[in-house]
Amino acid sequence: MAMAAAAVEVEEGRTGIPSLLRLSAVGEEAIASNVAQLIGWTPLIEMKNIAKKEGIQARLVGKMEAYQPLFSVKDRTALGMVEDAEEKGLITPGVTTLIEPTGGNLGTGLVLVAIQRGYRFIAVMPAGYSLDKQMLLRFLGAEVILTDPAGGFKGMMDKVEELTKVMPNYHCFNQSINPANPDAHFKWTGPEIWKDTAGKVDIFVTAAGTGGTLSGVGRYLKMKNPSINIVCVEPSESAVISGSSIKHGFPQQTEIASEGRGPNLQACILPHLKSSSPSSVPPTAWALPVRKSSGSRRESRRWEHGGSDGRADRRLAPLLPTSAPALSSLAVLGWSGGCPNSFSIPTEEPRKESSSSFWRNRRGGSPGFHKIQGTGPGFIPENLDRSIIDEVVTVSSEESITMARRLAKEEGLLVGISSGANVSACIKIAAREENKGKMIVTMLPSGGERYMNSDLFADVREECANMTF
Ligand SMILES: Cc1ncc(COP(=O)(O)O)c(C=O)c1O
What we know:
There is one protein chain. The chain has 15 helices and 15 strands. By secondary structure, it is α/β, with parallel strands linked by helices. It has 4 domains: about 30 residues, no CATH class; about 160 residues, Rossmann fold (3-Layer(aba) Sandwich), CATH 3.40.50.1100; about 100 residues, Rossmann fold, CATH 3.40.50; about 110 residues, no CATH class. A 6-stranded mixed beta sheet has the order 1-2-15-7-8-14. A 4-stranded parallel beta sheet has the order 5-4-3-6, with helices on both faces. α6 links the parallel β4 and β5. α4 crosses α5 and α13 packs across α14. The longest helix has 17 residues. It is globular and about 60 Å long. The chain binds pyridoxal-5'-phosphate. The site of pyridoxal-5'-phosphate has 20 residues, from α5 and α9.
């Protein structure tokens, strides 16, 4: 009996299926008591066919998150954030309504956990973003509220604010700034990769949405072996991170944020940065040095208060270029309890070049439309730990879609668009002489069936619709 107890002891970072297998190994029932118990642990698979066709001499390894109960990496985030909020006493089953602005995958993960634990769940998403995900959320019983896509994230946040005004017990996890998001990957995804590669991983590559996966896995792997390279992938059409001269640390950061527009909600869009003069920037837009000082994580994110007192112009003046084309459509996004969200732009200090050439010399930097769902939100989320990123690689929507189709046809891997982006980035990295013989591990964040109404399936959709007998 003592032996059985020892054998089923929870091994660090092993949840999901392995926790059941340990039971069957000692002759006990290996039946999951609920679907949330299956969250965690996904298999690694080597993509040998594509590596061979590309003439790559590095090992390409993907982590199949389609093996999660709701087929995406966000099941882990959902469980991690719910468990964290419950431990902190922030939410109570049967009492609290969970409400989250989501593009879809976190939403489906949250529905699963909400069903299991007895929460009402409302997903707020832009209309037309993904019909597949919208249908899935409804199919699973979530309440879905659509916002005008023209309003972007701000429109979603305004809707959340509107709803929460009339809702007594609600909780918004705020995945872009919630530390429980990267913590889930530090606790589970990172150890899984480390163990399942027997510590042989040399390079970890993944696209950032909230940055939760990259930061959590990256921190864990760097802790185990600081020489592992962490590569961030982002859409070339919205190369906000690479546009921020990100490589091996950030000399100094500057944040631009908005004043809050309600007790629990901070949001603004700064289209006015199109203006040619900083003096025309409204006083609600601020630029302040990042304060990494005292106290808890939450405390260190706090802003100095300021606002409509005219000081904003002075603060922005040394930081903004005389003309800021790169920032013309910059959106500053977020929502949180009393903690203004921010957009961070690393700056080089002292900056010798004129401000206009400073921006001209940056690659990318501006948000733009792309099709790699779940990634490239157009701003740098607080949960993206840039201090651990060794390199940023950009990949276009077209490259990503092409690669996702190749993964299906050449490897039999039915995965989504961001998986295509990640593998495309891996191939670019693997082609380098210095990476010969190295093991490159990447995330395959979601299963492909979720994208049947997207461009990923456009060619076969048309073909099948026009088939006759
Ligand atoms: C399909 C897909 N890929 C990648 C990501 C990025 O993950 P993270 O938010 O951890 O950066 C997401 C996030 O929602 C996603 O849905």
